[in-house]
User: What shape does this take?
Amino acid sequence: MTNLNTQTSFVPGRLEQMSTRVAFFIAGFGIAAWAPLVPYAKARAGLDEGTLGLLLLCLGVGSILAMPMAGLLATRFGCRKVATGGTLLICVALPLLATVSSIPALMAALFLFGAGLGTVDSTVNLQAVIVERASGRNMMSGFHGLFSLGGIVGAAGVSGLLGLGLSPLGATLVVIVLLLIALAKAAPHLLPYGSESSGPAFAVPHGIVLFIGGMCFIVFLAEGAALDWSAVFLAQERGIDTAYAGLGYAAFALTMTVGRLTGDAIVRRLGATRVIVFGGVTAAFGLCLATFVPSWEAALVGYALLGAGCSNIVPVLYTAVGKQTVMPESIAVPAITTLGYAGILAGPAVIGFIAHAASLSFAFALMALLLVAVAIGGKVLKV
Assistant: This one.
């Protein structure tokens, strides 16, 4: 465990900033590598859609349980050791996900994979808060942009390898090699500590941290909606061919990635409050455009605006967590990360329930209202 005096005398610099970017890329690349493997796992284990959905919950449960534990471990052992351990868990789980065929084995592999992802995600966000604060500059959007870029490269890369004829195991071995190379690049300059403040090991989010976590929950809810329901909406409500229904999420992911990669300059120019307010309004308008204008072209523009609007809200909220003094960041950062993941996990189920009771359009309209609430929350938060 690193002495607190050593922690505060060490100021993260350019190398630590670089390692943070690489670590975010690892997190995005790791989670996206799994997506193209899902159909293979489904066929290998002979799963129907309902059983697969329940199995995928194991991934989410593993992530959510690991996140607060990662904050505690990072405080005791440092971000470097915990992020390295999480990345190695991902590397162990991926070959299992590419080969096992029994339901119990898949459950265990998904839980392990989720725990690795949750550990890395929570730890790199904790490091990002510390590194950004030490730099005195807006950097969080760029960090999260590398996560989005890693996601695009991971999904496209594994899909390409499978398309070239590699087996799922062969594709995952390539992914593991790349992950280990990236880890070797990042690890020497990941922080040897995990918090610049002391506090209890666990605490229930409260005050401003709970408020920020609630806003993160809504934005991640919108991301989950775009991920899981945009293709269904385009095919079902706009009559687009199912082969092209994924264009909605592609438009969302593209503008979110570009928005984050350019976001630090945007935050410096507009200020954090305006980014949340304008972002929430833009995202809500985009979702309404996609939902209520009866053409698939308008829907694609709407999903693009949704991605652009959401892109920098969460990074700004992470910066705000680093500035608050209600809770130590080693607890606060995992707390809002966990709430965000809960939004992604709950989003598809909640929207499906509302769509079944009313309609998919009504569910999206409610989501747009929640995004307006985020915009109002930005005025209240005054970051």
Notes: Residues 207-381 form a domain with the Growth Hormone; Chain: A; fold (CATH 1.20.1250.20).
